[in-house]
Amino acid sequence: MAVAARRFLMVGGGTGGHVIPALAVARELRARGHQVFFAGTERGIEAKLVPAGGFELRAIRIAGLNRVGWRQKIATLGRLPFTTLACRRMVSEADALFSMGGYAAGPPVMAALSRRIPVVAMEPNAFPGFTNRTIGRFVARALISFPETARYFPRGRTELTGLPVREEFFAIAPRPRDGVLNLLITGGSQGSRTLNRAARDSWPLFLAGGRPVRILHQSGVSGFDDLRDAFGDSGLEGEVVPFIADMPAAFAAADLVVCRAGAGAVSELAAARKPAILVPFPFAADDHQTRNAEAIERAGAGRMIRDAEMSGRKLFETVAELASGAGVLERMGEAARRLARPGAARRAAEILEEVARG
After folding, report:
1. Among 18, 59, 147, 344, which residue carries the largest CB count within 10 Å?
2. How far apart are CA 179 and CA 130, in angstroms?
3. C-alpha span between 226 and 344 (Å, rounded)
């Protein structure tokens, strides 16, 4: 039976981790015949990605409260009531609101709740961000990626949907092991100084270790030239690149991934059935990457190394330990896949349709 066209407001900005999943849900809603618009700031990444996706972005004035100086915190708290009031008219145009959290979501979500407009929150981290923790008990539904996250929301209102992930990651077939260990190292599109330094210090150890290894390392632009030249002199097989455009292909070729532990990264690892060494970014809001990595480690799908403990020797020894055990990487990969949730954007759209009907 056809569903009557509705209007949905999508909020959550500041980083790609907030905006990209919201865009995936927005595209699903648009394909179902609904009207979709966004609210966000003019300086966040949403200002670029949302219009590029063909959606309207309504600008709001708000800044973050996490890890900022006291002057900005006071200014933001002083502006918050006025921004929330300004959002009341905008949210009244929507039948339901979808929130990915983040500081840009706060005022529209509070305005929606004040007008009794249903809010569906997606929380992809094991430990919810500030906005979702604050409004959690008021949401109509909470869409989560880890079972332990359910305790932060009202009983009976959570669903384990996972985070929207590109279908190419789910399509990756299990990779038969050969004599060479294929290692993918990535600190994200901007790179990671910790991973870059540890990788460089590990090269002599891998060379002396006698185990054939092929390394693909996404370094980010900063420091790339020096790292590339040094790798060329290392005697190891592989490549250092500033950016990997086709990450699903890089995952498909990897036996083991070394990366940060953002929600997007761990969701892609699960979809691709890839074991991982996770090095949480220590300055992430509320240290949520550590919570994600701990959840992945408890599930048997990865090994966590804290940023301060990551070194060339630690990287080499951990890789060697995991790769030397019979079937260890394969079992970790299967444990990762059990955490995967295909169809997250589709299910989020269905739930938004349900709550919009009252």
Report:
1. 18
2. 46
3. 40
**What's the pLDDT tens digit per position in 228-266?**
999 999 999 999 999 998 999 999 999 999 999 999 999
| pTM across the whole model | 0.86
Give the three-class secondary structure for 211. coil
Helix (H), strand (E) at residue 23:
helix 16-31
Q: Enter the tokens of residue 296.
A: 């992945």
181, 293: one domain: yes
State the CATH number of the domain containing residue 224: 3.40.50.2000
At 134, is the secondary structure helix, strand, or coil? helix
| Cβ–Cβ under 8 Å, residues 107 and 78 | no
Q: What is the CA radius of gyration of the chain?
A: 21
pLDDT for residue 66? 56
Please tell me the distance from the alpha carbon of residue 278 to that of residue 260, in angstroms, as a whole number: 5
Same domain, 188 and 49: no
Please state, in angstroms and as integers, the Cα–Cα distance from residue 180 to each residue in 102, 206, 254, 264, 284, following that order: 42, 12, 10, 28, 34
Write the pLDDT tens digit of every residue in 119-178: 999 999 999 988 889 889 999 999 999 999 999 999 999 999 999 999 999 999 988 888
Same-domain check for residues 325 and 180: yes
Instruction: Classify residue 2: in a domain, yes or no.
Output: no
Which DSSP string do the residues of 219-261 spell out, in sequence order?
Answer: --STTHHHHHHHHHTT--EEEEES--S-HHHHHHT-SEEEE--
Domain range for 139 is: 7-164+343-356
* 334 contacts 307 by C-beta, under 8 angstroms: no
**What is the distance between the alpha carbons of residues 181 and 206, in angstroms, rounded to a whole number?**
11
Residue 287 Ramachandran class (φ > 0 left, ψ -120 to 50 alpha, else beta): left
Residue written as token pair 């403990």: 309
- In the chain the first and final C-alpha atoms are separated, in Å, by 17
The pairing of beta strand 237-241 with beta strand 213-218: parallel
